[in-house]
Write a structure and sequence with these properties.
Methylamine Dehydrogenase, Chain H, 253 residues, four-stranded antiparallel sheet, mainly beta, 20 strands, 0% helix
């Protein structure tokens, strides 16, 4: 069903529904009944998606579905249609596409193809920008933010395009950058496509061309030698089912 779709991003929710965002719209697969639902832009319906190019999918604790598209952010309770927030209105940065989203109880975090990370309150008002990596190499700019995750300590892990993995402490407003080529904070790849945590607090990281890594849950400060343990360098079959450079999402369930 998905073989003709491009740029698939996935989210598996607590109701056993797999949400697959593609370049041609949003697909919902109910794993308990095997029913499939399709959501696409309908110019005649103001409550439809603003675009079929789905960049990110997320569900909050209130079971609202958040969908990031190349034209902005949409939210739905699934039965009430979508309410959309356009980049051309309010505080959203223009000339940038939404790459990733994370919704907390009192804020919306948005990762952009340009401009780093933005944080909004629940009324859609811009409250914080995280556009730069002050003093870090090789670039002071985030670039595209493909994925990010709040860990159990409310620290932020940011997966970027070509700038590696960024660890951000919001309370101290401090960064650590894990980057291929840095002596003290080295990882094997700088194109981070997906970050997810499991029920044990471990953090799983998909790196373009390098496979899947895991950061074990630890107490105290980070240990450089333990930050990423490579476990799946390449997943492939004779029929070419998968290779590591195709990994764009990690799903548990």
């Amino acid at each position: 069903m998905l073989k003709n779709h491009q740029n698939v991003t996935c989210f598996y929710d607590d109701d056993k529904i797999l949400w697959a965002g593609t370049s041609d719209g949003l697909i919902a697969i109910d794993k308990s009944t095997n029913e499939h639902f399709f959501y696409i832009k309908d110019p005649a319906n103001l409550r439809s998606l603003p675009s079929n190019a789905i960049m990110s999918v997320f569900k909050d604790r209130q079971k609202n579905l958040w969908v990031g598209t190349n034209l902005g952010l949409s939210v739905s309770n699934r039965d009430k249609g979508f309410i959309s927030y356009s980049f051309n209105l309010g505080n959203f940065i223009q000339e940038s596409t939404l790459e990733s989203i994370c919704i907390t109880d009192n804020s919306w975090w948005v990762g952009l193809s340009q401009g780093g990370l933005l944080m909004y309150d629940t009324l859609g008002q811009l409250k914080e920008k995280i556009p730069k990596l002050d003093g870090l190499l090789p670039s002071s700019e985030f670039g595209a933010v493909f994925s990010f995750l709040f860990d159990s300590s409310r620290n932020l892990w940011i997966g970027t395009y070509l700038n590696g993995l960024i660890y951000y402490n919001p309370a101290k407003k401090s960064f650590i950058q894990y980057y291929n080529g840095l002596q003290n904070f080295n990882i094997e790849g700088n194109d981070i496509r997906s970050i997810i945590s499991d029920q044990y607090g471990n953090i799983w990281i998909a790196i373009h061309g390098k496979g899947i890594y895991i950061k074990r849950r630890m107490k105290g400060s980070l240990s450089v030698c333990e930050i990423c343990i490579r476990i799946f360098p390449i997943i492939s079959t004779k029929n070419g089912l998968f290779k590591s450079h195709l990994i764009t999402a990690i799903i548990f369930g």
